[in-house]
Design brief:
It comes from Crucibulum laeve. By secondary structure, this protein is mainly α. The chain folds into 2 domains: 59 residues, no CATH class; 50 residues, no CATH class. The protein is globular, with a radius of gyration of 16 Å. 13% of the residues are buried.
């Protein structure tokens, strides 16, 4: 239920057409940047200002342009969308986006079936970094 196109998030928050164009343009330019200092962009603001709508709109644009590999939206209203599911959800979506990763991801899971009970650091290493290498 945490992906941008999940039924659980339907209807998702979206920007009204023609609004937030400057912020979305900045976000999309940031995502397309190849500068090493551009690895992280912090979208912040007061409650209700539209951060989720901006993120949703950006995720949909990325999907349309085939930029999107994985998304995860945390939600206060869904206790299932929590930090324990972040890495496995991203790993699953990456395997869907990059089918050759399935073999390496399966090998990691078969090698240690308890990975999903490990710390986030171990999960990131075994389910994301190692398979991507």
């Amino acid at each position: 239920g945490a992906s941008h196109d999940s039924r659980e998030r339907y209807p998702p928050p979206r920007c009204h057409p023609g609004t937030r164009t400057e912020v979305i343009s900045h976000l999309m330019n940031h995502l397309g940047s190849t500068h090493s200092s551009a690895n992280t962009l912090w979208l912040h603001g007061a409650v209700g200002i539209g951060k989720s709508a901006i993120s949703q709109t950006a995720a949909e644009i990325c999907e349309e342009k085939c930029y999107s590999l994985a998304t995860f939206f945390f939600s206060r209203t869904s206790p299932e969308n929590n930090e324990r599911k972040l890495v496995p959800t991203i790993a699953h979506q990456l395997a869907q986006s990059i089918p050759t990763l399935k073999h390496y991801l399966n090998r990691s899971l078969e090698g240690d079936p308890t990975i999903l009970e490990k710390s986030p650091t171990v999960q990131i290493q075994k389910l994301l970094l190692d398979p991507l290498r």
